[in-house]
Amino acid sequence: DSGVTQTPKHLITATGQRVTLRCSPRSGDLSVYWYQQSLDQGLQFLIQYYNGEERAKGNILERFSAQQFPDLHSELNLSSLELGDSALYFCASSVDLGNTEAFFGQGTRLTVV
Amino acid sequence: AQSVTQLGSHVSVSEGALVLLRCNYSSSVPPYLFWYVQYPNQGLQLLLKYTTGATLVKGINGFEAEFKKSETSFHLTKPSAHMSDAAEYFCAVSDIQGAQKLVFGQGTRLTINP
């Protein structure tokens, strides 16, 4: 158990819908990262937050957004969903911004039908 | 931009044999390098990492990797494979400037034959 909790574990929704994925980082970790794992794109970095502030952005679509709340949990919002958004979405957390170890949650598997 | 190439999407070895998973990276700045393992229906677990210092890095479960700057490589090895090593392995690179924005390779699925 990495200490990073992601909910829900599985999500099935229809095209055009909007979903919210939730991540609770390890106790004491200030940095949260979101990654998308799909068969065609592999593991791709989406976005990073540190202590509530956005710090880095990767290949995140405009239909996607995220935030980190004062209690440090984070949410990834995916809207106007398309079939191609079906993927495993991972959250990871680390203590700080430096290249310390990032701990990954078990992921949320999103299926868009 | 940084990138990672893992040579071989599938590797199959016999139990007890040497495991060698290849990773080459590209980075314009001194890299930090990582190997992660993903078991079925699980998240990613860090096996080992190279930041600075000793180029031979030992990790969990008997794995080790050697950073070779001249070859831009960070291959993962284990002297003797165990059935429990069957999983997907990902090599990743991040830059030295901080934010652990990892760039992952495509992954190598390791199969262990009895």
SSE diagram, text form:
The complex is a heterodimer of chains A (113) and B (114).
Chain A: E1 5-7, E2 10-13, E3 19-24, E4 31-38, E5 42-50, E6 53-57, E7 64-68, E8 74-78, E9 87-94, E10 103-104, E11 108-112
Parallel strand pairs in A: 2-11
Antiparallel strand pairs in A: 1-3, 3-8, 4-5, 4-9, 5-6, 7-8, 9-10, 9-11
Chain B: E1 3-7, E2 10-14, E3 19-26, E4 31-38, E5 44-50, E6 56-58, E7 64-68, E8 73-78, E9 87-95, E10 103-104, E11 108-113
Parallel strand pairs in B: 2-11
Antiparallel strand pairs in B: 1-3, 3-8, 4-5, 4-9, 6-7, 7-8, 9-10, 9-11
Q: What can you see in these coordinates?
A:
The complex is a heterodimer of chains A (113) and B (114). Chain A is mainly β. In chain A, 0% of the residues lie in helices and 53% in strands. Chain A has no helices and 11 strands. Chain A has strands spanning 5-7, 10-13, 19-24, 31-38, 42-50, 53-57, 64-68, 74-78, 87-94, 103-104, 108-112. In chain A, strands 2, 4, 5, 6, 9, 10 and 11 form a 7-stranded mixed sheet that branches. Chain A has a 4-stranded antiparallel sheet with strand order 1-3-8-7, with no helix packed on it. The N and C termini of chain A lie far apart (31 Å). The model of chain B has no long low-confidence stretch (mean pLDDT 92). Chain B has strands spanning 3-7, 10-14, 19-26, 31-38, 44-50, 56-58, 64-68, 73-78, 87-95, 103-104, 108-113. Chain B has no helices and 11 strands. In chain B, strands 2, 4, 5, 9, 10 and 11 form a 6-stranded mixed sheet that branches. Chain B has a 5-stranded antiparallel sheet with strand order 1-3-8-7-6, with no helix packed on it. In chain B, 0% of the residues lie in helices and 56% in strands. Chain B has 114 residues and is mostly beta strands.
